[in-house]
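Hey, does this match?
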Amino acid sequence: MNSTLNNGEWLAMSSEFTQQDENDNEDVPWDDIVYYEEQQDQTIYLEATDYVALFIAALQTIFLPCVILMIVFGALAIFLTLIF
């Protein structure tokens, strides 16, 4: 029987919960589960859609102010070259 602390008092839990947890493990087909070791030296190549998704995700973080500053500085540079 398990017990837990609740508001300074030890309360005994019914054994139904522990028995139910033990019965859950009996339903798992443990014979079909196999361990495969993964190779760590695989190279993953990104597709164009992955780069687009990374760019959009970066725009939703701190990268957005950097992009806005680059656009503003670029527009300012073009404007100043046209004036002078």
